[in-house]
Amino acid sequence: MSGNFPVSALPWCYEDGEDDTGDRMHIDHARTVPKGTIQRTALILSALENADRLTLSRIVAVTGLSRTSVHRTLEQLVELRWVHRDGMNYRLGLRMIELGAAAAQQNMLRRAALPTLHRLHRISGCVVHLGVLDGDEAVYLEAIGDERSIASNSRVGKRLPAASSTIGRALLAAHGIDSPEAERVRQTRLVYDQEQCMKGFGCAAVPIGRVESSQAAALSVFGPSARIGDRRLLSSAQSAAAEIWRRIQSSPSTTRKMGTRQN
């Protein structure tokens, strides 16, 4: 089980009404438009997070903010290098990349898991993810693999509905969700999907840590179905999760709450 698989692999499923243009907006227009500066800024940055680039008019439409407010905020963000302006388009700037990299480096869980994740990738040749639960969403903290195999929808920081993603279902089971599948995950410490999102490919996820604890993390491997179905790979993934947990337990600074399901 070695070598990368040459695909632009896509370890996700689109929700109803979505396409693959990258213009995926999670904006609820029914909610009250925020009035505070920080809230408006966060709304604009969230819109830019979910698209390669947007025009001023598109940002106004997506956020529901006034054109004047969006323009004024964007000008300030451009000056701070949080947003980059290219003609009529806006995208996240270099400062956001710097801040994101710093946040990733400071995450204790990620630091504890990274050596093991890299080794699992080398052994399996598959894309390897590390994720945590935030509310009812799974959030990727790390994605390791061939760059052609890690598209924008599995990037670091990407959020997926926990109930409909392999890694998310492993996390929900770890939080004590009452369902037949969750009970199986607690017994086997494994979520396994074959060709659910893409023909010929599969995904397996393993909880990290003591099941039914308030601490929750999970790793997943994504690759060709034949490889993902190999018992040796599944065993390697489970061993990797156990190794990461031992490393976390040996370092008190990493044993703080890693993920929380909020009702």
Automatic annotation (TrEMBL):
Keywords: DNA-binding, Plasmid, Transcription, Transcription regulation. One of its GO terms (biological process) is negative regulation of DNA-templated transcription. It comes from Rhodococcus sp. NS1. Residues 95-260 form the IclR-ED domain. The keyword Transcription regulation applies. Pfam families: HTH_IclR, IclR_C. GO terms for molecular function: DNA binding; DNA-binding transcription factor activity. Residues 35-94 form the HTH iclR-type domain. This is HTH iclR-type domain-containing protein. Gene3D superfamilies: 3.30.450.40, Winged helix-like DNA-binding domain superfamily/Winged helix DNA-binding domain.
